[in-house]
Design goal:
alpha+beta, L-fuculose-1-phosphate Aldolase, seven-stranded mixed β-sheet, 38% helix, binds 1,3-dihydroxyacetonephosphate, Aldolase_II/adducin_N
Length: 221
């Protein structure tokens, strides 16, 4: 096996394991969602509409930097925003998309998650924004995702779900799960009667302090 083939097989296995873990964590269901990893001049990504339990390493599709998939392979319909994230953020090496229940509930209400907890800093700033709705799999959605992620590592997708991007598959999955937990806390505050405008939140200066501390805390890669 050539070194590139070995790396591809390893990343493909990590993508499949992360897909299965999303199901175990309760942050995705059925054939919803997709995961990719930067690879060579493009990326490796889950195939479209395939149950995760049936995936083998050979099913993970390579898409090059022009958006062209390997012959005979059908990548996730969301390959556009995955590729666009890698092209706009050279520090991102993995992207996770899912339809997590609490994050998607907020996305349906078009609500960004505010700084209700210091873990918001893990996504890069004082909130997790919500990208406006566009049909799944379109260039329009890709542009909206790139805009929402300009200063963030994660965002919600209105009437759709969430996206998390990070330096590795393990970290992107970790961030996606943290976003879902933040969404759950915020949903519970709203259910207790807090209004979005009056929900207690941390000031921007404190989020900046926590963000700096995160440089030496948490998953290393
Ligand atoms: P794919 O099966 O094409 O990855 O689509 C799932 C999805 O969640 C679309 O947003």
């Amino acid at each position: 096996m050539q070194p590139n083939e070995a790396t591809r097989a390893l990343l493909s296995r990590q993508i499949i394991d992360a897909c299965l873990e999303m199901g175990r964590l309760g942050i995705n269901q059925g054939t919803a969602g997709n995961i990719s990893s930067r690879f060579q001049d493009g990326m490796l990504i889950t195939p479209t509409s395939t149950p995760y339990g049936e995936l083998t390493e050979d099913d993970i599709v390579f898409v090059d930097s022009r958006g062209v998939p390997e012959t005979g392979c059908l990548p996730s319909t969301e390959w556009r925003f995955h590729l666009a994230i890698y092209q706009h953020h050279h520090d991102r090496h993995a992207v996770v998309h899912n339809h997590a229940p609490y994050a998607t509930s907020l996305a349906i209400m078009n609500r960004a998650i505010p700084a209700v907890h210091y873990m918001i800093a893990a996504a890069g700033g004082t909130d997790i924004p919500c990208a406006p709705y566009a049909t799944y799999g379109t260039e329009a959605l890709s542009l909206l995702v790139v805009t929402a992620l300009a200063e963030r590592k994660a965002c919600l997708l209105q009437h759709h779900g969430m996206v998390a991007s990070e330096v590795s598959i393990a970290k992107a999955l970790w961030l996606a799960n943290e976003v879902e937990l933040l969404a759950r806390w915020y949903c519970q505050l709203l259910a207790c009667g807090y209004q979005p405008e009056t929900t207690p939140r941390l000031p921007a200066e404190e989020i900046a302090v926590v963000k700096a501390k995160f440089n030496s805390y948490g998953l290393r890669s």
